[in-house]
Structures are given as C-alpha cells and as structure tokens.
Amino acid sequence: MMPFDFIDHYLNTASSLSGDAVARRDAVQAALKDGLPTSKHENWRYTNLKALKSNAFALTSVADQNEMVIEDGLKDVSARLVFINGHYSPEQSQFFDERAKASIRISDEYSSALAVPDKTDVITGMNAGLMQAGAVINVAENCVIDLPISIQHISEGADYGAQFIRHTITLSEGASASVIEAFTGNDKTYWTNAITNIKLCDGAQLDHVRLSEEGVNAVHTSKAFVLMDAKAKYHALTLSLGGETTRFESHVRIQGEGAVATIDGAALASLGTSHDALTHIDHTVPNAHSDQVFRTIASKRGRTSFQGKVTVAQNAQKTLADQSFRALLLDRTGEANAKPELEILADDVKCSHGATVGELDENALFYMQSRGIDPDTARQILVEAFTGDALARLSEGALKDMLVAKTQNWMRTHLTSEAI
C-alpha cells in the first residue's frame, strides 16, 4: 500500500479540478488502493516507475510560451491543437479550412469512459480522476480530411510537475482522417499521462502517429484505446526517442468483420533511458486482420521492451494475425526484452509471432567499410534500414521525412564510436 499522504495528495488534487469532484476523487481512490504497479505486475515487469513512487507530482500551471517553431513535417495540417503543461493554448493553436469537415472542441470534463471499457488500471484511473483537458474530435459520415490533425503536448513546468490529458476521437461511418500526437518537454523531472480514446465506425479509416521527444528526466505513460467496427482500418505508429522512462500502449478491440489493425513502433534507447511498448489486439469476430511490426535499438545503458498480445475469441474464425519484433543491441550494457503472446480459442486461423534480439551484422559492416564508408556512417546506415521496417507503412511525405530525420539525428548522436 502507498503511504496515506501520497494518496491524500492526489485526492486533494482531484478535488481542486472542475467537474464532478466526487467522481474524480472516487476514481483516484480506486486507482491507488493497491499502489502504483511494480515489476511484480506482469504487464509492468519492464517499466520502472520509481520516480512516481518517491515523489508527489503536482499539476503544472498554465505557462506563457513564445511563438512556436513548427517543424516542416507538422506544417501542412488541417488543425493544430497545442497543450502546454496539460492546458489548452488557444493562442498557439490554429484551425485551417478543413476544420469544417470535423467537429473539434476542448473539454476539461471528468470522464471515465474508454473505447475498451475493461482496460482500467492504476495509470488509467489516475488519468480519469486528474484529467485537465483534452480534444474531442468527431468526423462526420463519409467525410475525408486530407491533411492531418496535429496535437502537440509541451511541458515547460518546474520539477515534479504532471499533466493529465485525455483525447477522444470518433470517426463516423466511412470517414477518414489522420492524427499526429507529439510530446516534447524541458529537462525537469515531470510526468506526462496521456490517453487517446478512439472509436472507428463501419468503414472508417484512421492513421495515428505518436512521437515522444520528452525531456531527459521525464516519465511518459501514454495509451490508446481503440474500438473498431466492420471494415474499419486503423494504422498506428509510435516513435520513442526521448524521456527517461517512456511507455506507449495500444489496446485494440476488433468487433466488426473485415476490420484491419496495423500497429507499428520504433524505439531508440541509450544512456539510461527506457522505452517500453505494450500492445493488445483483441479479435472478437471472424474475418479480421491485424499486423504488428516493432523495431528497437538499445545502445549504451539503454533498455527497450515489447509486450505484444493477440487474443482470438472462439467464434473469431478466419482471423489473420501477425506480430514481428526485432531488437538490436549495440553495447554490452544495453538491454532488450520481448514477450509476445498468442491466446487463440478459434481453430480456423492463421496467427504468427516472432521475436529476435541480436547485434549488427559484422560482415555487412566490413563490406561497407571495404567500399570506403567510415565505421560510424556504416553503422548508421544499417541501423536506419533496421528501424525503417517500422516506418514502412507510413505514407511518403513531409511527416515521414521528419520522422526519418529524427531517427537519423538520434543515430548521429548515439551511434558514433565514442558514444558506444
């Protein structure tokens, strides 16, 4: 059990927020009754939440910020929603012509509802009780939003600040959109707790990119809960480059035949950072398809983990489910963990999973160096090709170019002979 003063701190915080104070306090009380998860909890065995256990994080206040520098990959968007320290910033946000195709509003209302309602845990419960703000995005039937909706989360607070954000995205029948969530911050110790709740109706299509470039001392816990109806398509890509402890989760329930879910991710860890990914795709109906591709790099004192679970219900015949995880260790102090799972109750399915952990191909390095390529460049080229598998399904364009450039920049910093 946690010390009473720790729980009391968050109960008082919940009471200070707008909306139903009783419901907020009840959510926090229920979430913390058994304390924060530890390595003894199977789903949290690789994630170290020591910083959260030893400090009472306070909600960060609204902060003024100079005009943002918008990166090329995030310029061509239909809407830009900016949250600073967990608070919506109308001054930094922008809406363009395509806003008319979607209903977008900002909410600070308490809500415990999730697209996948049986997935509540400590982190999710605390988000419900302490949520400060979030976007509510609704795309009407058969509407196609050609340009992405960008949601940028920025932490500029003091040490031991926290931000709790919850977004809700609903695509009506036949609608199509893409959403980019980006997380950045300063070098203080802070906690970002973000949930994205997604409902895709029949035939809806959503591309969902999540990018973490949190500060070097940050704790990041982010979850997407996705409910898919018939013939819906959901493609998710997570890229973890920053933060001391970063954990992305994707929980997808397929409840309509013909739905397709593709969940991809890449994580690059070094110098004491830990990047974790957990996925659960739940096939509850026949004739649906899921595919997962995750690639991670662990350099000096870096750690990555992947826990991927696929469940197939008894009546979910003709299910196709594939899962691929590969990790590269670039230093003896690096660590990569994998825990793929298949739980299959149907008998007419095609399901597979594979997990490998290895080192760079020395023969390939030697070959490239024999052609005049210096060792650092050769190493970066091979690692870029390795991580490229996870980005392969992302459409060509400015966004993909930006993500590739960010991985290249990470490699130039962390994959030199001196760095490893």
Structure description:
The chain has 420 residues and is of the alpha/beta class. The protein has a domain at 4-256. It is built from seven helices and 21 strands. The strands form two sheets. Strands 2, 3, 4, 7, 9, 11, 13, 15, 17, 19 and 21 form an eleven-stranded mixed sheet that branches. Strands 1, 5, 6, 8, 10, 12, 14, 16, 18 and 20 form a ten-stranded mixed sheet that branches. Helix 1 (4-15) packs antiparallel against helix 2 and helix 2 runs antiparallel to helix 4 (122-130). The mean pLDDT is 91.
Question: What would you say about this model in short?
Answer:
This protein is an alpha/beta fold.
Distance between the termini: 40 Å
Strand content: 35-45%
Proportion of helical residues: 10-25%
Query: What composes the largest sheet?
Result: 11 strands, mixed
Number of helices: 7
Per DSSP E runs of 2 or more residues, the count of β-strands stands at 21
Low-confidence stretches: none
Radius of gyration: 21 Å
Overall residue-averaged pLDDT value: 91
What letter string, H or E per element, gives the SSE order?
HHHEEEEEHEEEEEEEEEEEEEEEEHHH
Approximate shape: globular
Structural class: alpha/beta
Quaternary structure of the protein? single chain
